[in-house]
Amino acid sequence: MKRLLIVALSLGILSLSAQVKSSVSEDPKMDKFINDLMKKMTIEEKIGQLNLPSSGDITTGQAKSSNIADKIKKGQVGGLFNIKGVEKIKDVQRVAVEESRLKIPLIFGMDVIHGYETVFPIPLGLSCSWDMAAIEQSARVAAVEASADGICWTFSPMVDISRDPRWGRVSEGNGEDPYLGGQIAKAMVRGYQGIGDKAYSSNNQIMACVKHYALYGAGEAGRDYNTVDMSRQRMFNEYMYPYQAAVEAGVGSAMASFNEVDGIPATANKWLMTDVLRKQWGFSGFVVTDYTGISEMIDHGIGNLQTVSARALKAGIDMDMVSEGFLTTLKKSYDEGKVTEAEINAACRRILEAKYKLGLFADPYKYCDVNRAKKEIYTNEHRAVARKIASESFVLLKNANKTLPLKKEGTIALVGPLANSGSNMPGTWSVAVNLDKPKSLLDGLKSVAGNSASIVYAKGSNLTADQALEERATMFGRSLGRDDRTEEDLRNEALEIAKNADVIVAALGESSEFSGESSSRTGIGIPDVQQRLLKELLKTGKPVVLVLFTGRPMTLTWEDENVPAILNVWFGGSEAAEAIGDVLFGDVNPSGKLTTTFPQNIGQVPLFYNHKNTGRPLGEGKWFEKFRSNYLDVSNEPLYPFGYGLSYTTFDYSDVKLTSTTIDANGELTASVTVTNNGTVDGSEVVQLYIRDLVGSVTRPVKELKGFDKVFIKAGESKIIDFKINSEMLKFYNYDLQYVFEPGEFEVMIGGNSRDVKSARFTLN
Ligand code: NOJ
């Protein structure tokens, strides 16, 4: 076994000497202000600060809050969420600062997940841009718009790693890779809050909330809210980094996840909330539950409301969303000696600190400038940003015979249940959107093509043949509307218009509500009724382009074999329609790369690129070998690997050059490739760096993403792409959960996706 080089454990799990930072802030003025205020507060008023009801304007969960105004006057409310409209927020704030005894302002939160009224692609789509500046800008625009409407706190970024496309909430995260997820977490926090001392310095910077801490994306069988159980090695090496990265970026708050971790719901898990989050990572913000996370612990089976509320507080939870467990039981627990005043004080202080940092004590109406909303929301400038980013998020999965781009001429038959719906474009987590605003694909294509092409439309089919499924999916959401005609009638109408067309664009897949919260599925293919339509369209012999709408990786094996071109557009936001047009007509060359593996079939799930080798790996390029780790009926390969995505040009990669084949602990080497755009159009390529630790004290993944560079290369030109490699990048959590690197041999792989790479080796001494 290799000699272990155990480096400073400042990031290590065993760093027991670290202190809980939040009780000792670095701002003496703030400390004095809060100390003075807390001296005036009764225990009930302190508990009141920990209470976060829902306004009821927007439905994001089952339970409802009541008598809010009354509770605000009594000092029983610390904040309010999902209330829409600056005038309304101003009114509520007025009640808090004029009619409650201590006049403490409220904090106003909302699920501003991928934009406000200007909506960006769903986060999974956004991540496929691999463009950190653009992602940061999307959060910035969202912060400007939300704050112009009175919101000062967003429940974003959601950074849960997931490897299970059955889970509806894969749509909300950044895919399967912790390194990429960490970079995105940082970009989002910067975009919402601002950086370092500059955070919240303006009234258009809002507090972020990293969620759902922790491991929410690893629920068993992809079923929402389900049990999570995994080794700590897996947690720290594969799932935790994005949360930690958000903390490193200074995120102001964190949200506990619904699931259990090690047999204890996250909401009562002291190891998670205090030992790791605060002591280990130095988080100094406040932690809010996810919705009724506290009362749900009764169903988890760990006690009655009083018990679970006390457990949550003691674990390190500061704010109770909706349950009112804190509000209704903490005083009793305090009287009975089950929680201490110090514990209540710590939570209350963290909430007050957040309000102070946001500037709400200095000016409770800082985010209530009623003139801003008209000028700063859904502006042309913001919409242009959203259109550009949307076009970067689309992933070209297949393009045989250069079917794409389309020419802006002739007749284009646009067919499919998703072709003529604007309200489907924004995706599910766009609670502030005005659904009348987004254009349908039909209108988007018309606007991009202009008058030179004729675009004819037919619905072709309903979304699914299973009406009950559709009703369940759209229970609190947006229905596409069903057409009462028979499947055959709808299809015939489509075939009729397709007859005279030069090309068919089929807008198929899932509607937005088929992914998102409480929208898990066990079948992740295009619904049967749409597939039957697609087959008939292909029989016409015309070129067919599948424009795929989806919030998750789908199984597309048949489509990949039979459809000439597939462009995955996710749910691209309020400006998606024209952005899709930009890409289909070649005004924008697609550059998105998958951040999540697309399996060949659902039985392969979970399938992810950074897996372990096992003791019986399948030989390279083999389909099946007896007594090896594989399936009888499907190869081990994904349909589309992590990092994959085509362009209207092609990129050639040279061999990997290393400046040295050895480094030591303090050294650095550079790995380079020359990437050549050998097509006829300019394009952007995401050059990806993977590393494999060939021998470890514990088993190591076959490859891990360690860097990437999105570069624009003109047709016919080449660029040299350099990646610096040092020992810090080779660290991992070992068996004892120490964060270390180990000397030995490493393989460097560089390529345009996780499968097709060029490699070289070096040794760490
Ligand atoms: C439940 C969701 O899990 C979470 O993401 C969201 O922020 C809260 N509800 C509040 O709406």
How do the helices and strands line up, and which of them pair or pack?
Layout (H helix, E strand, L loop, with lengths): L27 H13 L2 H7 L1 E2 L15 H6 L5 E3 L4 H14 L7 E4 L12 H5 L4 H17 L4 E2 L23 H16 L15 E5 L18 H8 L1 H8 L4 E4 L3 E2 L2 E2 L4 H11 L5 E3 L7 H5 L4 H11 L4 E2 L3 H11 L5 H18 L13 H5 L3 H14 L1 E5 L10 E6 L25 H9 L3 E6 L8 H7 L13 H13 L3 E7 L18 H12 L4 E6 L7 H6 L2 E4 L7 H9 L66 E3 L3 E2 L3 E2 L4 E10 L5 E11 L10 E10 L4 E9 L5 E2 L5 E2 L3 E8 L5 E8 L1
Parallel strand pairs: 1-10, 2-3, 3-4, 5-6, 6-9, 12-13, 12-14, 14-15, 15-16, 19-27
Antiparallel strand pairs: 7-8, 11-16, 17-20, 18-20, 20-23, 21-22, 21-26, 24-25, 26-27
Helix pairs in contact: 1-14, 2-13, 2-14, 6-7, 6-16, 7-9, 12-13, 16-22, 17-22, 19-20
The structure holds 1-deoxynojirimycin.
Percentage beta strand: 15-25%
Q: What form results from the Cα inertia axes?
A: globular
Radius of gyration: 26 Å
Largest sheet descriptor:
6 strands, mixed
The CATH topology label of the largest domain is TIM Barrel
Distance between the termini: 14 Å
What's the arrangement of strands in the largest beta sheet?
11-16-15-14-12-13
Q: What is the count of structural domains?
A: 4
CATH superfamily of the largest domain: Glycoside hydrolase, family 3, N-terminal domain
CATH architecture of the largest domain: Alpha-Beta Barrel
Short description:
By secondary structure, this protein is of the alpha/beta class.
